[in-house]
Specification:
heterodimer; A: 201 residues; Rossmann fold; 5-stranded parallel beta sheet; B: alpha/beta; 2 domains; 4-stranded parallel beta sheet; 9 strands; 37% helix
Chain lengths: 201, 315
């Protein structure tokens, strides 16, 4: 059951059409920056990043006329906050055939917050191989970085208070596309997932 | 999950499934041949002690490999060549390990219940993993056996389910901790277990276990999805349980004709070490349906999952 917009204090900042436009723009920006899609590999960070990566891949493949490899990269085993909570379930990692050596890897996530998930993803990539370069695409950048990390492609810059929750809904997992913002539990950013704004997984 | 893994009864069905799913994901991660570093940093700075009071090859090496692939520090302790042979008690050994800061102790002991004593006596704060105690339990062996069965037998629509599968466990049930752990786990996962052994090698009270028993291997074999042969544990036998090895082999050994009675998809398993020619023939052990070598590889993934779930999060 997707959270309704009329929940008290919850506001929709991007609707389905906004999400679609943002993804189309990011897909073009990735192609522009890399002069096409050759050697580009999209890796989504579970859970919402995987669906976003797949959609970016579809758009890029349509423009380029050749399939862009899309995979998923679970960062659970590389997180710096594992000891703050009970052991978590692993998500699926799926690296496209051909690996990441010498490729341009574009990491895709839904919300960029503290930057700790991205740091974990970079460490995980280290163990997989040696990409030629690594870029970062996110649907929402909500600020409050705790590490020197920035996104290369951003759907929407969303100024937030750290007390607020940002939730990304995607049609395949949540029934519809939207970005919601609302009052949330006032936890310090350090104890949260990057996407914990997106609610319990 | 409980802080310790002493018995399969420490796990609910959901928790056991969670261990097996985690093991599958870890196996998928590290078996990727493109992967540059076949190791994960998750347990960096944690110490795992392998405390072995009884001989073991594969279990100890398997736990050591699992801990090292998660980047934990490993200390191996075997009773031979240690102060235990000078008469040191389990308590004093435990206190020594506590002083060294062990986060997990993997213990094998000839006495049933020794891991439980270690876990709940207050001698140490570490997590305790039972790697085989006397004739009681060997939970990680059961988990890796179930993991192996799931890989081969799970229905395509629900990968990993063992509901309704038939498993025969054959041989020296009396001395087998593997059999007890397997019966408990397979029952939790929905499989139907039949223990097959001569009456002398079935434990007292087996009627209360969640399984069937039979004395007739030939009657059980055709309907099985899995036949698991157990080692005849001569080192624990101080009485005559059967007239001769040849008679045992003829009635309860998995030889070529019996291999032919199995269904097309049925698996042959053995926890090792094998007595070739006694409980299992070379033909059966080396046949394509034998998962005996695969069981060893799967053991590392399952033990990684157990160590991660016990040590990976907040204590």
């Amino acid at each position: 059951m997707p959270p309704a917009v009329d929940e008290p204090g919850v506001r929709e900042v991007l609707d389905a059409a906004d999400v679609a436009r943002a993804l189309t723009r990011i897909a073009h920006e990735i192609l522009e920056r890399n002069r096409g899609a050759s050697d580009v590999v999209l890796l989504g960070v579970p859970t919402r990043g995987v669906g976003l990566a797949r959609r970016l891949g579809e758009r890029m493949s349509a423009v380029e006329g050749s399939a862009v490899p899309v995979g998923s990269l679970d960062v659970t085993m590389y997180r710096d906050d594992l000891r703050l909570r009970p052991a978590r379930a692993l998500e699926h990692t799926d690296i496209p055939a051909g690996g990441v050596d010498g490729k341009v890897v574009v990491l895709v996530d839904d919300v960029l917050y503290s930057g700790r998930t991205v740091r974990a993803a970079l460490t995980a990539l280290d163990d997989l191989g040696r990409p030629r370069s690594v870029q970062l695409a996110v649907l929402v950048d909500r600020g409050h970085r705790e590490l020197p990390i920035r996104a290369d492609f951003v759907g929407k810059n969303l100024p937030t208070s750290s007390r607020e929750r940002v939730r990304v809904l995607l049609a395949d997992t949540d029934g519809r596309d939207a970005v919601l913002i609302g009052a949330g539990p006032g936890q310090p950013a350090a104890a949260l997932d990057e996407t914990s704004g997106a609610g319990p997984r | 999950m409980n802080r310790h893994l002493l018995s399969i009864d420490d796990l609910s069905r959901d928790e056991a499934t969670h261990v097996l799913d985690t093991a599958a994901e870890l196996a998928h991660l590290l078996d990727d041949t493109d992967r540059a570093v076949r190791k994960l940093p998750t347990l960096r700075g944690r110490t795992v002690v392998n405390l072995f009071f009884e001989d073991s090859t594969r279990t100890r090496i398997s736990f050591e490999a699992a801990a090292k692939r998660l980047s934990a520090d490993v200390i191996n302790f075997s009773a031979k060549g240690s102060s235990v042979s000078k008469g040191e008690s389990l308590k004093d050994t435990a206190l020594t390990l506590e002083a060294m800061g062990a986060d997990a102790v993997v213990v094998r002991h000839p006495a049933s219940g020794a891991p439980h004593r270690l876990a709940y006596s207050g001698w140490t704060r570490s997590s305790v993993v039972n790697a085989g105690d006397g004739t009681h339990e060997h939970p990680t062996q059961a988990l890796l056996d179930a993991f192996t069965m799931r890989r081969h037998l799970g229905p395509p629509d629900r990968p990993g389910a063992l509901d309704g599968r038939r498993v025969a466990i054959v041989g020296d049930i009396l001395h087998s901790r593997v059999a007890r752990s397997n019966v408990l786990l397979l029952d939790k996962l929905g499989a139907a277990v039949t223990l097959v052994a001569p009456p002398t090698l079935l434990p007292v009270g087996v009627g209360s276990w969640p399984c069937q028993t039979s004395y007739d291997l030939d009657a059980v074999l055709p309907a099985c999805d899995v036949v698991m042969m157990l080692r005849v544990q001569r080192e624990r036998m101080n009485a005559a349980y059967f007239p001769s090895a040849r008679e045992y082999s003829r009635r309860y050994g998995l030889d070529a004709p019996r291999l032919g009675m199995l269904a097309e998809h049925a698996l042959v398993m053995h926890p090792g070490p094998m007595n070739r020619g006694l409980e299992i023939s070379a033909v059966a052990a080396d046949s394509p349906r034998s998962t005996i070598v695969e069981q060893v590889a799967n053991g590392v993934s399952v033990r990684m999952a157990v160590l991660y779930l016990l040590l990976g999060g907040a204590q």
